[in-house]
Amino acid sequence: MIIEEILKIKNHPKEDEIGKLENDLYNEFRGGRDRNDILILLNSDIDYMRYYGCDILNETRINDVKYVKKIMDKLYDILINDISVNNKIRAYHALYGIFLDNKDINGLLLFCEEMKDNTEPLIKQSSFEFLEKYKTAPENYTFDEFTKHLFSR
Questions:
Q1: How far apart are CA 96 and CA 19, in angstroms?
Q2: What is the pTM of this model?
Q3: From first to last of its 153 residues, what are the pLDDT tens digits of the chain?
Q4: Which class for 104: exposed (0-12), middle (13-18), buried (19 or more C-beta within 10 A)?
């Protein structure tokens, strides 16, 4: 069903309404729509379906433990293997956000250590920026103190 919904939005005759329709769909996920629908998009053979799956994840939180690992594994697969640079970048940002949503600084550190050698400049730069912020973080920080430091200029 989610594939048909995306196709309906993408092929909507009034281009100026597409953004509203996308936002309405994203709001369903913000409101708790079944995360399995995101996995359907991430597993699609259609390039832009995977993009929508990554994009939805950039706009929502995954609080259901049973989906976090499956979704993270699929995002990582997209990040490493997808042919679309846009999908790789969206997958990277979605993973980055999931680590932050789960307050997993150590996981994010390991992830950025791995991604600092990525061939995509935006991924590489974002990873380096995180690693630099991590190096200059105050000792014995709380998560809130670290995120405040992370997003400071």
A1: 24
A2: 0.91
A3: 999 999 999 999 998 999 999 999 999 999 989 999 999 999 999 999 999 999 999 999 887 778 899 999 999 999 999 999 999 999 999 999 999 999 999 999 999 999 999 999 999 999 999 999 999 998 888 899 999 999 887
A4: middle
Long-range contacts of 36-44 (CB under 8 A, 24+ apart): 36/67, 37/1, 37/2, 38/67, 38/71, 39/67, 39/70, 39/71, 39/74, 40/2, 40/3, 41/2, 41/3, 41/6, 42/71, 42/74, 42/75, 42/78, 43/74, 44/3
- How far CA 31 is from CA of 60, 63, 137, in Å, comes to 9, 12, 34
The number of beta carbons lying within 10 Å of the beta carbon of residue 52 is 25
First to last CA, the chain: 43
Question: What is the DSSP secondary structure assignment for residue 116, as one 8-state letter?
Answer: T
**Hey, what amino acid is at 123?**
I
- Rounded to the nearest angstrom, the gap between the alpha carbon of residue 147 and the centroid of all alpha carbons in its chain is 17
